[in-house]
Amino acid sequence: MEAVRKKRAFICDMDGVLYHGNRLLPGVRKFVDWLKKENKEFLFLTNSSERSPRELKEKLDRLGIQVEASHFYTSALATARFLASQHPNGSAYVIGEPGLINALYDAGFSMNEVSPDYVVVGETHSYSFEKIERAVNLVRAGAKLIGTNPDLTDSMGKGISPATGALIAPIELATGLKAYFLGKPNPLMMRHAMVMLGCSREETVIVGDRMDTDIIAGIHADIETILVLSGVTSKDDLEKFGYHPHYVLSGVGEIPG
């Protein structure tokens, strides 16, 4: 672990790594204090597109962890950044929450329900047949289909809810087209994160609780990975995958030593 502790930058997943629902996980306060004390560069990165960095900061504030909003990066921001690079000042029909809509506005996009350049789908609690029907017809008319992340489910503390991958599936099936997903494990999100941190991949480590998003994202980006067993992946699950993390820990509290 000494090699890990010498790393300059840490990219950390949130749910299952820092907290479960509204419960802070053991060792997180020690880990964050260590990051600050050692002057590490760090980014808390989430595949969720619902909340803005400010809202995520406020959530950690409520859990007793003080971190500036600049330390958060979401799939909504990654999606907005990608679309702005592909089609500056474009337009989108969005099925998602304010975190996604505001990220697109900030990137220069306008909302368009008639002839958008893109249909963009993220997590939402306002899912409806009417929205799916509109999205299907817009994609059939030529709009490109984008998903903020490919996750099928999201943890809700005591259970799970359908995530973007599940919500976008009816549009894919009805149009016969596959969405392009920007969140983990897309290595673009990792590259964005490293640019924000100002660090190289050799100086960076990724910490996550999911093999199929966090760890594979690190492998795709050629960054060392730490799997923590405080989230969805158990030690027995490791045998199911054709790849493995560089380190396996019970939680982030083991990183400082």
Could you explain how this protein is built, in words?
The chain is built from 9 helices and 15 strands. It is of the alpha/beta class. It has 2 domains: 116 residues, HAD superfamily/HAD-like (Rossmann fold); 106 residues, HAD superfamily/HAD-like (Rossmann fold, 3-Layer(aba) Sandwich), CATH 3.40.50. It starts with a helix and ends in an 8-residue tail after the last strand.
Secondary structure topology:
Blueprint: H1 2-5, E1 9-12, E2 19-20, E3 23-24, H2 28-37, E4 41-46, H3 53-62, E5 72-74, H4 75-86, E6 91-95, H5 98-106, E7 110-111, E8 118-121, H6 129-140, E9 144-147, E10 153-155, E11 160-162, H7 164-175, E12 180-181, H8 187-197, E13 204-208, H9 211-220, E14 224-228, E15 247-249
Parallel strand pairs: 1-4, 1-13, 4-5, 6-7, 6-8, 8-9, 9-12, 13-14, 14-15
Antiparallel strand pairs: 2-3, 10-11
Helix pairs in contact: 4-5, 6-7
Short structural summary:
By secondary structure, the protein is of the alpha/beta class.
